[in-house]
Design brief:
- 29% of the residues lie in helices and 21% in strands.
- It contains 22 helices and 39 strands.
- The protein is of the alpha+beta class and 940 residues long.
- It is elongated and about 110 Å long.
- The relative contact order is 0.10.
């Protein structure tokens, strides 16, 4: 095994992918071939020509990002991690300490029966890891260690048979089955003794109101059985006996619901054709026409406390203090006597057929005190123990089901490998940050378990699984596995990563064939970041080609102005933007994952458009998805960001603990991760984002401090500290910086012509105190929907401006009225005093999208320029349009900037002449337009 990388090396590599010899791809035998050939190389991938800095190398300074992060750090400090651990501990049958599960997607009552539970804990661990790396606060490390310790205990418990969880009982001790443990008590087949008269008695303390959860159920199947349910469909206890299924049940119903978290005594007697149901000593129901007795059932295979013979019924959640069975019907007085003392001390005595006091405090069996020696056994509905390495907040059943599933049904299987990814990523990040060996052991064990399971499956099965919507979703697991492989060097781990190849997606994307229409967006975006890691590890060119081409299918062809993508979680046809806008556009997870992909692509190819996109999505959707409000209980992050008129952002989406809240927690604790990169040879520093921060570049012995209020300020200052070092400073010139990009060093202008959408390089030996000043004036511009040029969104520099207006139809706005000669549309707006980046237009206030408010907003508006107006001078002439919607004014201003008024007038005259000649404008109106342009006064 190769020696592990140091924590710092791993952090600097931003969770590395390993570099290995090429592995040929074949339709079959992929796993065994990869195991034989893979050799881990513990180094930053050679293909990364640009490399990240560690989070703790870049400190956020006061500003927009620090303010947003502070809100999330408050949540990271304040939320009780035992609530997150509750679902894991419950699954393992461990004590939960009274913690209440978070609910929503992290609880059994959440969407799809809580089938995604556990994912949020992984997100939270990653958030804590990033928070610790970024701040150094010990509280975050302490919380990580608490969670890692608990998860270690959970995994150990899952590897064993269930053990009794002893709690205080009605009279002494009791045995509790925590909800979510799927535990029940299995009684020997002879427990009913073939009795024709019988009494069954139990002390129970229900903790959940689950309809049809059984106190006991004796039967073979769904036709021959006898049960007592704590709650029927009406919420009251029900006893029933049948030899012909539900339609033949002879039953007795109670009259009131059993209270939760309180002890209740239940008893049923049958004799002489009469059955009686008692609750707390009182007869609450009687059936005098019972022709069946337990003897009619014969010998039964399933004799259970807490489990139903109907597989869809819930397992009883709560505690048992006693369960007794007598071969006669106790009298009402005897039943009453059982209310105040244990059966052993009561007039009835212990049950002669079975008697369990549940006094055990360890082990997994319960002694029978009836004298018949019918020892009962604690079991799990899913069998067990689990396989080595398995760790989850639910059993292995979803993973098993997926292997034979041909259709998606998230109420049965909801993305188990997606949840596994979140947990794996969380414990891996915990290790990288704290060097807690237990976390690495958890991560390695999970991958060992996955490999043991998946490597046995045929290739066709894997392709079918990964192609299933939702059920087969696996998130960014490939990236995480490759990162782990860089540490462990285990060939099986790299082989495992390749078992997630979705060949149809890879091969079409590598061929630049767009098949995204109809695909679930967030199911597929993170796959490509993983495939880039596999390119690093194997050298297979198709992985890189697929990732690069895929990115180009989304940006700009399926991208909204804020950088988001997807509508109702899915992609539609290429270049359809206006036609997809709804209340459920721009799932926040998609932006998170597109940022990760853009970043990873930049490591391989320093294409400026990757960082232009990064800035767009980060400064708009990602920042705007976090509400500007503190809350220890909730992260306050959007799921969807509706782009319909008047949409109000929902920062507490769905039922809570969603995927987007999880990625939102992560985003808000790593804002600094892409501000600076370095070249592979250490000879260049990339300044990708303009954000107040301080870089410590240890290898060079220098610091770089960036001072700015960007984007509320249109400039930034970089100050070098420490020693001296020679390197090229590569400054990103944003694609929107058409008004200029001026650079000075120590007050002197740097020669050269910065080009928007590129990097501008300043090379020298830098010394402490050197100061670089960058000025990049903003212009107001519009971006048009690809399928409807009249539907537009406003940008001021990198900032998307949204109208705050409660109207639910698109605002009709004109912007040419006072356009400057530069083409800047800003003069048509009025600044709002004391509110940077706030403007008014036509009575509506426009504000930065990144402000996390609950105002109704208009991200898009309908462009309406009904008359030709120059410099606020109205010509009175209607603004004509071509068949494609392009207007006269559009064509005139398309040539901006203009050096002078004369240049603009010349453009007006030539355009008018062309439109008159084409019959789109009369000669008289054309002359009026030219005269108006000549008379008007223009802003620069």
């Amino acid at each position: 095994m190769a020696p592990p990388l140091s924590r710092r090396s791993l952090l600097q590599a931003a969770a590395l992918a390993a570099a290995t010899p090429a592995i040929s791809h074949t339709a079959t035998g992929r796993a065994s071939a990869a195991v034989q050939e893979a050799k881990a190389v513990t180094a930053i991938p050679a293909g990364w020509s640009a490399r990240p800095f560690a989070l703790d190398d870049v400190a956020l300074r006061p500003g927009l990002f620090a303010d947003k992060r502070k809100l999330m750090l408050d949540h990271a400090r304040g939320y009780d991690v035992n609530r997150l651990l509750q679902v894991f501990r419950a699954n393992a049958g461990l004590a939960t300490g009274g913690a209440v599960a978070p609910g929503g997607w992290e609880g059994l009552d959440g969407e799809a029966n809580g089938n995604l539970r556990g994912h949020y804990t992984g997100h939270f661990l990653t958030m804590l890891s990033q928070a610790y790396a970024g701040t150094g606060e010990q509280v975050f490390a302490d919380r990580i260690r608490t969670m890692v310790g608990a998860l270690t205990e959970v995994r150990a418990a899952l590897r064993k048979d269930p053990a009794v969880l002893s709690v205080a009982g009605r009279f002494g001790t009791a045995a509790e089955n925590v909800r979510g443990s799927y535990q029940y008590v299995d009684l020997p087949a002879a427990v009913l003794g073939g009795a024709s008269a019988i009494t069954l008695s139990a002390w129970v303390k229900p903790t959940h109101a689950g309809n049809w959860a059984r106190v006991f159920d004796f039967g073979n199947d769904n036709t021959r059985y006898m049960y007592l349910a704590a709650r029927n469909a009406s919420g009251v206890p029900r006893f029933a006996l049948t030899t012909s299924g539900p339609g033949g049940e002879q039953g007795i119903d109670g009259t009131a619901a059993l209270p939760l978290e309180q002890w209740s005594h239940l008893a049923v007697t049958i004799a002489g054709g009469t059955g009686t149901l008692y609750v707390n000593g009182a007869a609450v129901g009687r059936n005098t026409a019972m022709t069946l007795t337990p003897a009619a059932l014969g010998t039964l295979a399933n004799n259970w406390l807490g489990r139903s013979n109907f597989a869809t019924d819930p397992v009883f959640a709560g505690a048992y203090d006693a369960f007794d069975v007598w071969s006669r019907a106790l009298t009402a007085a005897e039943i009453s006597d059982l209310q105040s003392r244990p059966a052993a001390d009561a007039s009835a005595g212990r049950g002669d057929l079975a008697s369990y006091a549940f006094e055990e405090t360890s082990g997994g069996t319960f002694a029978d005190a009836s004298g018949r020696g019918l020892t009962a056994t604690l079991r799990r509905t899913w069998g067990g123990p689990s396989h080595p390495g398995f760790l989850a907040a639910y059993p292995e059943t979803q993973f098993i089901d997926l292997e034979s599933r041909t259709t998606s049904d998230y109420t049965k299987v909801w993305a188990p490998y997606y949840t596994a990814h979140k947990i794996l990523r969380g414990v891996l990040d915990a290790y990288l940050t704290t060097e807690d060996a237990r976390a690495l052991d958890l991560a390695s064990g999970m991958c060992d378990w996955m490999y043991a399971r998946l490597s046995k499956l045929p290739e066709a099965t894997l392709q079918r699984m990964w192609g299933l919507f939702s059920s087969g979703e696996f998130g960014g697991i490939v990236e995480a596995i490759c990162d782990l492989h860089a540490i462990t060097g285990k060939a099986e781990h790299l082989a495992l990563a390749q078992l997630f190849d979705l060949d149809r997606l890879i091969d079409n994307s590598a061929a630049d064939t767009d098949i995204l229409d109809g695909l679930h967006a967030n199911q597929h975006i993170p796959i490509f970041t993983g495939y880039l890691r596999l390119y690093d590890a194997t050298g297979e060119q198709r992985y890189l080609d697929a990732a690069r081409n895929f990115w180009g299918m989304v940006v700009p062809h399926r991208m909204y102005g804020i950088g988001g993508t997807s509508t109702a979680e899915f992609w539609k046809a290429r270049d359809v933007i206006a036609g997809t806008i709804s209340d459920t556009t721009a799932e926040t997870c998609c932006a998170y994952n597109m940022l990760k992909l853009s970043r990873a692509l930049f490591f391989h190819e320093q294409r400026p458009q990757y960082m232009d996109y990064y800035e767009r999505a980060l400064y708009n959707q990602v920042l705007g998805s976090k509400q500007d409000k503190a809350d220890a209980e909730k992260p306050l992050v959007t799921y969807f960001i509706g782009l319909t008129p008047g949409h109000v952002r929902d920062y507490t989406p769905k039922q809570g603990t969603t995927c987007c809240e999880g990625t939102g927690m992560e985003s808000a604790t790593k804002y600094q991760d892409s501000v600076y990169f370095k070249s592979a040879d250490g000879g260049a520093l990339y300044v990708n984002l303009y954000s107040p921060s301080q870089l410590t570049w240890a290898e060079k012995g220098v610091t770089v401090t960036q001072t700015t209020a960007f984007p509320r300020e249109q400039s930034t200052t970089l100050t070098v500290g420490g020693g001296s070092a020679a390197f090229a400073l590569r400054l990103r010139v944003p694609a929107w910086a058409t008004a200029g990009f001026r650079v000075t060093v120590n007050g002197s202008a740097v020669s050269g012509t910065p080009t928007p959408g590129s990097y501008f390089t300043v090379s020298r030996t830098w010394r402490s105190g050197d100061t670089v000043r960058i000025s990049m004036p903003f212009r107001l511009r519009v971006e048009k929907a690809l399928d409807d040029p009249s539907l537009q969104t406003l940008f001021y520099g990198p900032v998307n401006l949204v109208g705050r207006n409660a109207a639910t139809s698109h605002l009709q706005l004109g912007l040419y009225r006072n356009s400057g000669l530069s083409g800047d549309l800003l003069p048509s707006l009025t600044p709002v005093s004391g509110k940077p980046l706030h403007y008014t237009l036509a009575g509506t206030e426009f504000a930065p999208f990144f402000e996390g408010t609950e105002d109704p907003t208009h991200a898009y508006f309908k462009r309406s320029e009904p008359r030709v107006v120059f410099g606020n001078t109205d010509s009175g002439v209607a603004n004509p349009a071509r068949s494609d919607g392009t207007t006269l004014l559009d064509e005139i201003w398309a040539r901006a900037p203009f050096d002078s008024k004369g240049a603009l007038v010349t453009r007006v005259r030539s355009t008018v002449n062309a439109w008159v000649a084409a019959g789109r404008l009369s000669q008289a109106d054309g002359q009026t337009v030219v005269r108006t342009a000549e008379r008007a006064t223009y802003a620069r």
